[in-house]
Each structure stands twice: as structure tokens, then as C-alpha cells.
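Two proteins, back to back. First:
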Amino acid sequence: SWSRGLGDVYKRQQHARADDRYVPLGMAGLAAIVLLILCAVLVARLTGFEPAQPQLAPLVDTRTLGFRDGAAGSVEIYDWDSGEEIVRIATGEGSFLRGVMRSLVRQRRGSAIPTGAPFLLSRYADNRLIISDPATGENIDLIAFGPTNIAVFAALMPASTATGGADYTLD
């Protein structure tokens, strides 16, 4: 029984050595893939390759928006040009809208740009909405967030062009 135990150990060692041959081969394969990707990125950078940007449909309407803090943590959204209040969002409400605007304001603070300047909400013929910050050049295409969240911003457009509500669809 003791010698048979040694035979099992010997077999396991032989099997382990056979498995060890595949490890360097696998590592070499991974290294080759990484090297290929790095070369592709280098060529793209050196040749000035820019990925194609999607072509936007014609611009239908824009609204210049202002945001100010209200009492008890509310946020007032108003038409920048007229000063007219569009909506007041109470504390604990409008988390999507607050999150999007917070990210745009964070960009301003990082660039030492005053936070009181207006934002631009643009609607295109295909119902795409883009909120942009003219001060930083930052744009957020709201299509990535789905129709329910797009409707939150669509409600901020003038009544003649807004298509608000959860039935907001993209063409």
C-alpha cells in the first residue's frame, strides 16, 4: 500500500508537469493579444483616426435653462431668457434630473467656471434631446437613459414642442 501511494504521487507529478506546458502557451497568447491591441491604438493615434460621430437630425427647438436653489432644498428650473419659472422640484424628487445637472455642474467646478451660467436643452427632429453646457462644451445625449428619463427633460421644453410623459418615443 505504501508503494502504491508513491505511484499515485508520481502519476500526479507527471500530470502536473503536462499541465504546466499549457500555462506558458496561454500567457504568450494573452501577451500577443494585448500587444496587438496596443499596436492598433498606436496606429490610430499616429494617423489621427477619429471614430465617426452619429449624424444628428435637424434641430427643432432649444431652450436656455437656468437652475437655482430654492427653500428647503428645492430646485427651481426657469427659462433663462424670460426668467419665468418652468418647474420647482421639491426635496427628494427629480433624482434623475438632479443627477444629470449635478454632473454638468461638477464639470464647471473642475474647470473653475462660475456655476450660475445657463444650460441649453436641444430637441432634434428625431425627438433626441441633448442637454449641453455652453461654458464647458459638455453634452449629454439623453437617449442613453431611456424614454421615461427623456420625458423628464422633454417636459422642460416649450409647450409647443414638448412631447412629455412616459409615451415619449424616439423615431
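And the second protein:
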Amino acid sequence: FTAGAPFSGKRVALSKFDFTGQQLETNYLLYPDNVDRRLYPSDIIASNDSLTIAYFGDINGSSGNWTQGLIRLDTTGAVAWARDFNVGGSGQEHGTKIIATSFGYVIAGRTNLTTPKRLFLMAVSQSGNLLWTKSYGDPSQEQTLVDYYASNLVDMGDGYLMTGMVDNGGG
């Protein structure tokens, strides 16, 4: 939270700590703390001398209409690019894990406003271009995650493994 605001003050920020846990600095990314935005950072990875942060939320205000986004920082900590994606048109995507791949990134997550809720994978190039999105599971069963911030995606070299949970019975 920023400035104590409930929803309109949620931002993606990056904090740096020393080896003893002392906080050295915090920087807001994309929007300052006095602008109405509702963004939730969900994961961070270091790859190719840069940082990439996954987030979800509303880049236009503080509504419940969420998209999935990525922020790539260069070696100086400056934003190299930021992209926002609407995954499958659900109206509220919740990314949980990002992994680096040979072509860029794969993001795992779930949709919140579809019926039923679905798990998804999204592929993004190293320059931030959307390559593909896919949702998974039986259309009659809700797919979800036990822990929304769990590590539920791994790269196996020839594909990916993703964990999830079926809420409405079945397999």
C-alpha cells in the first residue's frame, strides 16, 4: 500500500536490502504513489542481467477489472519496457508465477471472473510481445490454485509443468 489508501494506492515497487536485512531503498515502478492505480506484484526473476516483475491489476484506476502485466528493468534499475495483457478476456487475471525461457517468459495464473475459473499459461517474448495464451481444464469444473502465490510452474526443457486444483470434483 502507499499513503495508506485501501485499493487506489496499491503499486508495484522494488525494494533493495543489504545482507543484514536492512532496507536500503524502495522505488515505485510505472506510477507514483499519488495516482489512482490498483496493481499487485506477483513474482520477480533475474535473467540476462535484468529483472522482470510480473503483476496483475488495473493500470487505469482502482477497479476490479484486472489484466496481467510484465515490467522489465535494465541493469541500472530503470524500466526498459512494461506491457499489459488481457488474458482470454476474463476481466480479472491473477498471475502467480513467471519463468524465463529461451524465447522470453512464461507466466502461469488463473482467471477470477470466468465461469468456471480457469488456469492459464501466457508466453511473452524477450521484448515484451505476447506470443500466445491458453487456458486449461474441463469446462464444467473450476480450476484454481491452493496458494495464489505458490511456485506452480517449471520449465522442463521440452515443455512446462503446472500444478493446480480442481474445485468441483473430477480429475
